[in-house]
Amino acid sequence: MSDQSQSSSSRETHFNSGNREHNRRQRFLRTADILKKSGLLEITTKTRDLIIKNNKLKEEISKVQVEVEDLFLEILNNPENRQYKELYESLQANGQVSIESITSADNTEILELQNS
């Protein structure tokens, strides 16, 4: 390909790219206008904000779960907590409990098993 045809091709690509961006922007503005006129723009904006907050909270929860798992294992490995480690291992061997169930679920079932 010659330098002139490469340059022409590059300009067309840039033009098409710019045109696509312009069309995208126009579509966005039309959609925003329709949402605003229908009263749905505020709801849409709030929904977007809630989704962002929800994703951040999910990340924080995941981090806390990892911390809880680490703490739980540290507690189990403390020699003073031998009876709890034996209980956990017994429940785990019977398929009644896993570390995931302890760190992510309601622990009342585990406490009930411990008390029985």
Brief account:
This protein is an all-alpha fold and 116 residues long. Helix content is 84%, strand content 0%. The radius of gyration is 29 Å and the shape is elongated.
Keywords:
mainly alpha, 116 residues
Explain this structure to me?
With 116 residues, the protein is mainly alpha-helical. Helix content is 84%, strand content 0%. It has five helices and no strands. The longest helix has 36 residues. It is elongated. It starts with a helix and ends with a helix.
Provide the fold topology.
Elements (H helix, E strand, L loop, with lengths): L2 H36 L2 H36 L5 H12 L5 H6 L3 H8 L1
The share of residues in extended strands comes to under 5%
Radius of gyration: 29 Å
Judged by helices, strands and strand pairing, the structural class is mainly alpha
Largest sheet geometry:
none
Helix content: over 70%
| Average residue pLDDT | 81
State the helix count: 5
Parts with pLDDT < 50 across at least 5 consecutive residues: none
Report the strand count: 0
What is the string of helix and strand elements? HHHHH
Give the termini separation: 82 Å
Approximate shape: elongated
